[in-house]
Amino acid sequence: MKDSVKKTSLGNSTTVYPDWINEHEKVVNGAFNLYSPMFYQPVEGDWGTIYKFLKHIFQGKGSVDFATGEEYNFKGDTFTVALDYLNIQYVAPTHLLPVPMLVSTDQQTGKSTFLRWLSEVYKGNSTILNDEQFKMDFNNHYISKYIIGFDGVNLKDSYNKERLIKMVTADTVYIEEKGVDVTKIPFYGKVIMTSNDAESIMKMDENDKRWFVINVPSIEEDNLDPDLELKMKKEIPAFLYYLRTRKPFHQRKTRLWFETEDILKDN
Predict the structure, then answer these.
(1) Any idea which of 110-119, 168-177, 182-191, 200-209 has the lowest mean pLDDT?
(2) What is the CATH number for 78?
(3) 27: helix, coil or strand?
(4) Residue 2 lies in a domain
(5) Can you tell me the distance from the alpha carbon of 6 to that of 41, in angstroms, rounded to the nearest whole number?
(6) Cα-based distances in Å from 49 to 119, 151, 230
(7) Closest listed residue to residue 84, CA positions, set 212, 233, 248
(8) Residue 77 domain-assigned?
(9) Is the CB of residue 121 less than 8 Å from the CB of residue 203?
(10) What is the pLDDT of residue 112?
């Protein structure tokens, strides 16, 4: 799958241009690329721990048979959509995508672990914010990142809700830093959110296709693995190899790739 979005610096000395497949370009059209090269490189191997974790988070009927290499995908299935989301995020990084929102009132569900793991996948191009960090007057600590995680945030405030909505569908943004001139750059950031309260995270408009809401179940005490994150970290190269060789099951239908009915599913 080839991403055809043109590289642009908007006439500035800095820009962002994500390309996680080809050799990293430090300078794009005369502007310094704020994105860093991928820390992990794809290598064929086992990613069984990541698979089990993603199945826990996103559930659904979809599956991967590691013995045969076969995938079992279903239209609108939460696990199939999640694999497609991660697939597109890696191989077509300039494409707009919906915002996964991992929600649960229970503790020990893995929501924050998912954010930390995805942040590790794109190490150097990611950040995880709390409420106060998003509400700060300046945005230079997150706006030029590719993965922008919001962990346990509450966005009932209409001003911050509108800021988020504008950000997730923006083509360009301004880097605002104290004492530094405002700089306009392209925006390809992928926002992911977690919350312990679906109602408090924000009041979503009915059928708003920006949000891919997943109700995450808790992990039984006996199934908690203290080495889970270390195991998944070791499997990142194999998972990237899988994403690089996979084709999305859902065909591109909208600006955010997926059809509304494919992501507005109860699970």
Answers:
(1) 200-209
(2) 3.40.50
(3) strand
(4) no
(5) 24
(6) 17, 23, 10
(7) 248
(8) yes
(9) no
(10) 94
Closest CA to 113 of 59, 197, 121, 90: 121
pLDDT score, position 191: 94
- Structurally, the chain folds into a number of domains equal to 1
Bridge pairing between strands 63-64 and 71-72: antiparallel
Can you name the residues that pair with 177 across neighbouring β-strands? Answer: 180
For the chain, first and last CA: distance in Å? 29
Q: Which helix (H) or strand (E) is 126 found in, with range?
A: strand 126-129
Residues in the chain: 267
Q: Supply the mean pLDDT for the chain.
A: 88
Residue 239 sits at φ, ψ, to 5 deg, of -65, -40
How far apart (Å, rounded) are the C-alpha atoms in residues 134 and 145?
A: 13
Q: Other C-beta atoms within 10 Å of 123: how many?
A: 14
Each residue's pLDDT tens digit, 243-252: 999 999 999 9
Q: Looking at this protein, which amino acid is placed at residue 160? A: N
pTM over 0.70: yes
Residue that the structure tokens 């990293």 belong to: 24
Distance of CA 103 to the CA centre of its chain: 15
Cα gap 155→87, rounded to integer Å: 28
Q: Give burial (CB, 10 Å; 0-12/13-18/19+) of 59.
A: middle
In a domain, 5, yes or no: no
In 61-174, which residue ranges form alpha helices assigned H by DSSP?
78-91, 111-121, 131-135, 158-168
